[in-house]
Amino acid sequence: MRVFKDIVGYSHDELCSDAYAMNEIFNGLIFEVQAKMVTIDLDVKVNTGANAAAEETEEDEGVDAAGVQQVINIVNALRLVETSFDKKSYTGYIKAYMKDLMAKLEESNPGRVADFKKDATDFVKSVLGKFDEYKFYTGENMDADGHVALMYYKPGETDPIFLYFKDGLESVKY
Question: Which Pfam families does the entry mention (predicted)?
Fold first, then answer.
């Protein structure tokens, strides 16, 4: 399994994994990752190996059942944190992020810079054009300088799609 970590910012959070269906879109600029809504059980189940007396029950112990919760599998597994932007603050963030990412690309893959710059500009314009359709997620450390994943729903779909800048991620094999 490969996990993709942020290369910009200080935290280098894990942001996605090849355990989820991934496609490259926008001329290979973006990883499009299919997420799913899943139900998780919040009840704590502890097996101590001891034999409880027949008359003891959860009610006797004062344990409340926590129930179940609907979550997005990628968000839950990688501990992503939803954040918010208005169009102006996102524009400021993405300009700074692109500057940092371009500096990394110039060091590691200078031949990629021109294509990246053109494709990234086109992609960001498309995002800003449909800004209200997106939600934004950071890694678990909420690194303000790091990668912010975009989440949206395709029309008629109930499971979300996450978008990541491919060049902003480092693949780590586990």
Answer: TCTP
